[in-house]
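haha ok so turns out i had the wrong file open the whole time. this is the CORRECT one, sorry everyone. sequence first:
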Amino acid sequence: MSSSPYGSWSSPFSAASVAASSPRIDGARFVGTEIWWGESVPTEKGRVTVRSSSGAEILPAPWNARSRVHEYGGGAWTADDRGTLYFVDAADQQVRRLNADGHLVVLTAPGPSHGGLRIQNGRLLAVREDLSTVPHQRSIVEIPLDGSAAADTSAVRVIVQGEGFFAHPALSPDATRVAWVAWEPGQMPWEGARVQVAEVDGGIPRTIPSRAALQPEWLSDAELVFADDPDDRWALQRVSLDGALPSGATRPLAPSDADTGYGLWVLGNRWYQPLNDGRIVAVRTNGRDAVVVIDAEGGESVIEFPGDGHVSVDDVDGTRVLLSGNGSRVTAGLWCVDIASGEVVAVRGGEPVDPRWMPASMPIDIDGPHGTVHAFAYPPANPDAVAPDDELAPYVVLVHGGPTAHVTGAASAAIAYYTSRGIGVLDVNYGGSTGYGRAYRERLDGQWGVVDVDDVIAAARGLADAGIADPDRIAIRGGSAGGWTVLSALVRGGAFAAGISRYGVADLRMLAAETHDFEASYIDGLVGPLPEYEHLYVERSPLTHTDRIAVPVLLLQGGEDRVVPPSQSEAIRDALSARGIDHEYVLYPAEGHGFRSAETIVDALERELAFLGRVFGFHPHE
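then structure:
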């Protein structure tokens, strides 16, 4: 086999095949004898439909199940056992009911956004957000199923309302009480969310002592379980409301050195589900995920199935469990697992990948200035190609967004797009990431633009020092908060020969002035509150120091992005242009925060590959 330079290898992974690859699952439910799931359709500009295991499309075009609550949405559809679908349409944020016979009924009036839909005991709960009021109002509501609230807004029952934030409504089995998660405007949910409970018919909410609570669920009419991290790891906590335990006292259930939960960015996440027999199916995250069954005494057993990243326990029915997520050796998918028999059925996706082209990523630890840095390495992999003996591979260091988020080393066609061409990838969980406990997550407190940058630079230098990567051909790529770290690392200089920023943050004062409610106080914890810390906002912002950027930069931006508006990327573009720095700027007018349409995904990937080839001196194979 003759050798070919890294970056020039022929690959079966086209940008179009990446766009059409693994489904993006958005929740799943048992519905009668069927399984329903939400799925993004890239060829329809990212429209979220609902499909059935029978092969039917339950939610036809043009309907698009997407919520804008807290901007990131989630929980935009649910269904009852009779085959009735309830969904939030992206266009107007109204809730609709779609009967099994195809009859459509509007359930809410125009105006507020809705998300986090949940139907229990024939009652539909939702999180509602109204940005037309001053101050903005959010609430947990019960929506009548007969459509009366579409014309009479007073028909909506408001269970709790305020200027803060709410998530995860859960109705008690006797339908008399509702539990939810709440946090104040000056906090992010992982900094101070608490569980509250109130009577459905009204009354003052009762607060359960909690630190960063997630997903309350009822074990009985008088007992709740929820996730919280009082001791560094998110773990399940039990609490009795009526005397089975000392009133209001919480008791940990099977704590471990792993997290059941992570950053509450969207409303539809489910990290665990109680079974009817008292056991609980729960996700455990320590870099990668495992799923366990916990019994009433705290004993546990592992569920064997191929998913091990961002797993969601979407629904349960008897001993059957619906699990969605990604995997290190399979494509992203949805599985039905019978925990009694051990049977695992891939409902959608979840196909094994070819290890010759997509070998499992390698978890690695890197010594950084603030402690160990966790990452996943994907070396170049192509069974039909070999590089010259005297050549080291170019690498791309990936930086996830959030920053309170994490990556799991999943098999990914988007990563294979690079590795199969001879470009290695290192996906970094820098300090501040979830999945490794509170102490690791809080490394970034007050240190955004410092710890994250130090960690990705340490990762890049580790690759070079180990003789794995060509030190002159290491690029860095990230989106949103990851784009901030990209630009900040380029300002620091010395480690990266090129940068790719997707809708990245460039100026902290601009972000503070333009960002949405949910993240309005995020920078307070990551850097410090204004006006006291304005000097740090200026000092750490890449826009302040564009004179230090001396390598080529590719900027990709969505025109409809309301989280990181185009003004951020355009400010960097203008500054680089004024200094004559090699750069490209691409605006996708119809895209928001994250690229969803197949056309955009294809164009962005092809531009990135061409950019790297131009900068690093290789010619991508057509």
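The CA atoms of residues 362 and 369 lie 22 Å apart.
again sry for the mixup
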